[in-house]
Amino acid sequence: MASIKTYARVKPADDLYDDYETTRNRLYLRIPDSYGRDSTLYNRTRAPIVNHEFKYSQVFGTSATQEEVFNISTKNIIDGK
User: Fold this and answer.
1) Residue span of the structural domain in which 50 resides
2) Cβ-proximal residues to 14 (8 Å cutoff; 6+ apart), any chain
3) Is residue 2 in some structural domain?
Protein backbone atom coordinates (compact mmCIF):
# COMPACT_ATOMS: atom_id res chain seq x y z
CA MET A 1 0.00 0.00 0.00
CA ALA A 2 1.31 3.42 -0.94
CA SER A 3 1.94 6.03 1.71
CA ILE A 4 2.51 9.75 1.65
CA LYS A 5 5.87 10.92 2.96
CA THR A 6 6.76 14.46 3.89
CA TYR A 7 10.18 16.07 3.91
CA ALA A 8 11.60 19.36 5.12
CA ARG A 9 14.85 21.00 4.17
CA VAL A 10 16.42 23.83 6.14
CA LYS A 11 18.28 25.71 3.46
CA PRO A 12 21.38 27.74 4.29
CA ALA A 13 20.98 31.51 4.05
CA ASP A 14 22.85 34.61 5.14
CA ASP A 15 19.92 35.80 7.24
CA LEU A 16 18.99 32.33 8.54
CA TYR A 17 16.52 32.26 11.39
CA ASP A 18 18.57 30.39 13.97
CA ASP A 19 16.14 29.63 16.79
CA TYR A 20 15.31 26.12 15.64
CA GLU A 21 16.41 22.53 16.20
CA THR A 22 16.15 19.50 14.00
CA THR A 23 16.19 15.77 14.58
CA ARG A 24 15.97 13.05 11.96
CA ASN A 25 12.22 13.58 11.55
CA ARG A 26 11.24 16.67 13.56
CA LEU A 27 11.67 20.41 13.22
CA TYR A 28 11.26 22.56 16.33
CA LEU A 29 10.80 26.33 15.94
CA ARG A 30 10.80 28.91 18.71
CA ILE A 31 9.14 32.13 17.58
CA PRO A 32 8.51 35.26 19.65
CA ASP A 33 4.77 35.75 20.10
CA SER A 34 4.95 39.30 18.74
CA TYR A 35 6.64 38.15 15.51
CA GLY A 36 4.71 39.52 12.56
CA ARG A 37 2.73 42.03 14.64
CA ASP A 38 5.37 44.41 15.94
CA SER A 39 8.68 42.79 15.15
CA THR A 40 11.01 45.43 16.54
CA LEU A 41 14.05 43.99 18.27
CA TYR A 42 12.84 45.34 21.62
CA ASN A 43 9.52 43.51 21.41
CA ARG A 44 11.05 40.28 20.03
CA THR A 45 13.48 40.00 22.94
CA ARG A 46 10.76 40.57 25.54
CA ALA A 47 7.91 38.65 23.95
CA PRO A 48 6.93 35.21 25.20
CA ILE A 49 8.23 32.40 23.02
CA VAL A 50 5.82 30.17 21.12
CA ASN A 51 7.12 26.67 20.41
CA HIS A 52 6.13 24.76 17.30
CA GLU A 53 6.89 21.13 16.49
CA PHE A 54 6.54 19.73 12.98
CA LYS A 55 6.88 16.01 12.15
CA TYR A 56 8.18 14.78 8.80
CA SER A 57 9.37 11.55 7.27
CA GLN A 58 12.80 13.17 7.30
CA VAL A 59 14.31 16.59 7.95
CA PHE A 60 17.40 17.68 6.02
CA GLY A 61 19.69 20.20 7.69
CA THR A 62 21.60 23.08 6.15
CA SER A 63 24.49 20.82 5.14
CA ALA A 64 22.33 18.45 3.05
CA THR A 65 23.20 18.41 -0.63
CA GLN A 66 20.67 18.51 -3.45
CA GLU A 67 21.75 14.99 -4.40
CA GLU A 68 21.13 13.68 -0.87
CA VAL A 69 17.66 15.24 -0.77
CA PHE A 70 16.84 13.82 -4.20
CA ASN A 71 18.13 10.31 -3.43
CA ILE A 72 16.11 10.03 -0.24
CA SER A 73 12.93 11.91 -1.14
CA THR A 74 12.41 11.40 -4.88
CA LYS A 75 14.59 8.75 -6.51
CA ASN A 76 12.32 5.81 -5.60
CA ILE A 77 9.34 7.57 -7.17
CA ILE A 78 11.17 8.13 -10.45
CA ASP A 79 12.56 4.59 -10.43
CA GLY A 80 9.01 3.25 -9.90
CA LYS A 81 9.69 1.67 -6.51
Assistant:
1) 7-78
2) none
3) no
In a domain, 21, yes or no: yes
Name the 3-class secondary structure at 32. strand
- Domain assignment present for 34: yes
- Count H helices and E strands in the chain, helices first: 3, 5
Mean pLDDT in consecutive groups of 10 residues from the start of the chain, 81 residues: 88 77 92 60 63 95 93 90 73
Residue 12, C-beta contacts closer than 8 angstroms, at least 6 positions apart:
62, 63
Residues 6+ apart with CB under 8 A from 51: 28, 29, 30
